[in-house]
Design brief:
The protein has six helices and eleven strands. With 262 residues, the chain is an alpha/beta fold. The chain has a nine-stranded mixed beta sheet with strand order 9-8-7-10-6-1-4-5-11, sandwiched between helices.
Length: 262
């Protein structure tokens, strides 16, 4: 089984240094990059699948030139190789351009499944995997809590989280599956895995290598733009209610009513 995992380097949320540049774009030089947390869950799911069914895992990332530094962690977790799409023309790309570039990169790869995280911590839109699936005409199975590939029928069955429980979906492979944290905690890279990651292949591709016109992506073609930003108001003093339950309930209701937005 061949599995591709979409992986994105994002600013480390623990560093607390995220900031916007003068152009309204995220200043990626202000904070060290890490693998997007939800992508790690997708990678863990992929590694478990190849451990159970055989095969290999390839990670694909659209990232700045420094991308391989972050991709090495994913390789240290157990992925077999990486594909890094980088080009100066990609700066400022929106979700539409990102989906187009990733879809173009996937056309050169063989895979049974493409796995992706539900969203990224620096964007939170959660629409890129759906865009990739649409462009490649792949079945799209979202919010997976369980993934069961069935090689004999060349199908994949997914237990998808829903507001009322879960749905069971089945689709032919190849397919794209959006993963959730219910699939299991990502493993920590072992010392052996970290050492092995140094020698694993990361193929670097420019836009011309995957057949994408540089003029069709980047900030100039973005369909969204940040017009302004404001810092959240400072946190107010905490109010602690220590009354008996019936009195406390009334006080909480009154507190919420006073602050409701009509």
């Amino acid at each position: 089984m061949q599995i591709v995992v979409l992986v994105k380097p994002v600013p480390d949320p623990a560093a607390g240094g995220e900031r916007l540049g003068a152009d309204g774009r995220l200043d990626r030089a202000a904070t060290p990059a890490v693998v997007n947390a939800n992508d790690e869950y997708a990678l863990e799911a992929a590694l478990k699948l190849v451990e159970a069914h055989g095969g290999e895992v390839t990670i694909v990332s659209m990232a700045p030139a420094s991308g391989p530094e972050t991709m090495r962690k994913a390789l240290a977790m157990g992925a077999h190789r990486g594909v890094h799409v980088t080009d100066t023309a990609l700066a400022g790309s929106d979700h539409v351009s990102t989906a187009r570039v990733l879809a173009a990169a996937l056309k050169d790869l063989e895979y049974d499944l493409v796995l992706a995280g539900a969203d990224t911590s620096d964007g939170l839109a959660g629409v890129v995997p759906a865009g990739v699936a649409a462009l490649l005409r792949l079945p799209y199975l979202s919010y997976a809590a369980k993934i069961e590939p069935m090689k004999e029928t060349e199908t994949v069955r997914v237990r998808r989280i829903s507001p009322t429980g879960y749905d069971v979906l089945e689709a032919p492979m190849p397919a794209l599956v959006v993963c959730t944290q219910a699939l299991g905690e990502p493993r920590y890279p072992s010392l052996k895995g970290i050492m092995a990651a140094r020698s694993k292949e990361i193929a670097t591709k420019a836009l011309s290598d995957i057949g994408v016109d540089a003029a069709s992506v980047g900030g100039a073609m973005a369909t969204t733009k940040v017009l302004g930003s404001t810092a959240p108001p400072p946190r107010a003093a905490t109010r602690v209610v220590r009354e008996p339950p019936d009195v406390a309930a009334r006080e909480l209701v009154e507190f919420l009513v006073q602050r409701r937005i009509v």
